[in-house]
Structure formats: C-alpha cells, structure tokens
Amino acid sequence: MYLSTIVHFMRSVIRPPMTGNTPTAGQEALRGEALAPVEGARENRVNTEKIRNESQVRGEGEAVNRYNGAVSFFGTEDGMNKADTPTLRAFALLEHMVHADRPLTLAEIVQDFDAPKASLHRMLSALEAGGLVIREPGAKNAYAVGPRLAQLGMRIVMHSGGRRQRHAILSRLVGDLGETCNLTMLHNTEVLYLDRMEAPWPLRLDLKPGSQVPVHCSASGKLLMALLPKDERATLVRQLKLDRFTANTITDVEMLEAELDRIAYKQIGVDNEEFVAGIVCVAAPVVSAQGEALAAIAVHAPVSRTPLSRALEFVPRLQTAAQDLAKTF
Q1: Longest dimension (CA), the chain
Q2: What is the pLDDT of residue 156?
Q3: Which tens digit of pLDDT belongs to each residue from 192-212?
Q4: Which of 7-16, 52-61, 298-307 has the lowest mean pLDDT?
Q5: CATH number of 161-326: 3.50.50.60, 3.30.70.120, 3.90.79.10, 3.30.450.40?
Q6: CATH number for the 2-37+84-151 domain, one of 1.10.357.10, 3.90.1150.10, 1.10.10.10, 3.30.1360.120?
Q7: Residues in domain HTH iclR-type (predicted)?
Q8: In terms of CB atoms within 10 Å, which end of the chain has fewer, N or C?
Q9: What pLDDT, on a 0 to 100 scale, did the predictor assign at position 92?
Q10: Distances in Å between the alpha carbon of 152 and those of 105, 135, 156, 172, 177?
Q11: Measured between alpha carbons, how far is 315 from 298 in angstroms, rounded to an integer?
Q12: pLDDT for residue 269 is more than 60
C-alpha cells in the first residue's frame, strides 16, 4: 500500500510551473532542527479526540482529514508517541500535503496538526531548502510538495520489493500475446517506464525501464491522464506542448480533451501510430482497491504484424494482468 502514497508524490507536482523569485530558506533550514514536541501524551489524546469528535458531529471530510493528519503527526492514536521523531514528523507532514491534493497555507497546516506555528515553519523551510517542498507562485505562504520528492518516488517504485513479481507478470503476458508489454506510471508531463518485457522479434523499440515518453501521444499516457481527477487533468493538459511526432499525433487541445473523455469512458488507452509511425499500442489501467489508477500495462506492436483491431482483442488479457499487478502495489 505504501506505493500508493508514492504515486501521489509523483503526481502531486502536476501544477503550473513556478514563476518569479522563490523565497530563500533561512540559514538554519538545513540543520535538521528537530520539531519541538507538541505536548505530552495526554495533550495528544485531547487533540486527536477533539478532531475525531468534529468529524463525527459535522460529518465533514475536512474534519476527518484533520483527525487522520493529527494521528499521523503525533504518532499513535493512544498518545504513546511511538513514532514521535523529527524524521517521521516531516514525512507525516509531506504525506498530509500530498493527500490534500492542493497547496496548503501555513495557517491551514498549523490548524491541521494543532502544532506550534514557528516549529512547523522551521520544518517547512528545511523541506523547501531540500527541494521537497515548494512555495506556490502567487499564493502567500502556500506550500506544495516539490519535484525532488517525485524523483525519489520514481526510484522507489522502480526498485521496490514487488519488482520481481511485476516482471514475472509481464513475462507471462508477453509469452501469451507474443508482443512486447510494458508497465508505466505518470511522471509530470511524461510517462515513465517502470518495466518492460520484449517479445522475441527482430523489430523492436529501444525503450528501457526509466525511459520517458510524452503523455499526449502514448496509450498509457492518455489513459492515465484521462483517469486523473478533473482539476488535475485540466492542469496537466494546460502544461502540455502537444508536439507532433507522426501524422496521427493529436496536437489540438480540444481534440485531446475529447479523446481523453472517450478513454475515460472505455477505460482503455489507444495509440494509433501517434508516437512512432507503424507502431500501435493498447493500454489498460492498474487500479488500486480504492479505485485509483496507479499505473498502466500496455502491449505494442508493428501495425504490419498486429493491426490495431487485433491489438484491441488483447484487452481482456491486459485487464487480467492489470488485476494481478495491482496486488503488487
């Protein structure tokens, strides 16, 4: 399940690029200054109980998020502070910012964690100096996770404990379909190849794990983009350059939006010679138990050997493999 959080880390940098001057962190930011304990165990129980009561009485998602954030920040629900270390508190803060799905002001973070403003500001300054947090342009004291966190997440996913299982699933699928298959994730405005298994044919594309391709002209990229929450999808589309690679590449925003709507409805991504002339690709989503598209599994082949109509017949087997892959996340 921790990889689901990493996926959020990688996606959370899908925001408009920074403009203007970035505020400089204080000289003490990199000293790893410990966040002072908020209060004792008794105080922690009071804080978490107060927020939990809010969620029960008001029934609002914000109160629930505050309660969950407080439990993560203080350590344990019983107030024993078993996880009460500066490193884990920093991670709890980052995780909370990721799952907020929008920039948070310092005032909001202080309210969410019920912690001293000065202590949280020092922690944010340290994280900002390390590239793990950025200031949102045009918003006073609004913070979001930074691109360095997404880069770390990418490396964790590529080398995580489930890598062998995922590679074995790809290998079986290639043996079944007789064509090259790959596993990808969304990374900023591109698709990242987590793993890839080549079919034993002389004609192939040289795309190794770690390679990245544009989202707007790849089956996996369009699929993962189509399944994003609407606001994230709109933000990502605005950032795309929509470069042309072949005669079939979609370079018009309205046409791309219409294509994404169709893909979201069918839950299948298609690349009809849009990235490489003569190559077709079909992708299916790897979906978590919570219904979130974590990754995509795809098959691609030369159109001379496997036309698109034939590649679409592989969809049921792609979906079965996607279900198996979801268990490794």
Answers
A1: 70
A2: 64
A3: 888 999 888 766 666 777 788
A4: 52-61
A5: 3.30.450.40
A6: 1.10.10.10
A7: 84-147
A8: N
A9: 85
A10: 24, 19, 6, 29, 33
A11: 9
A12: yes
Q: Which pTM does this prediction carry?
A: 0.63
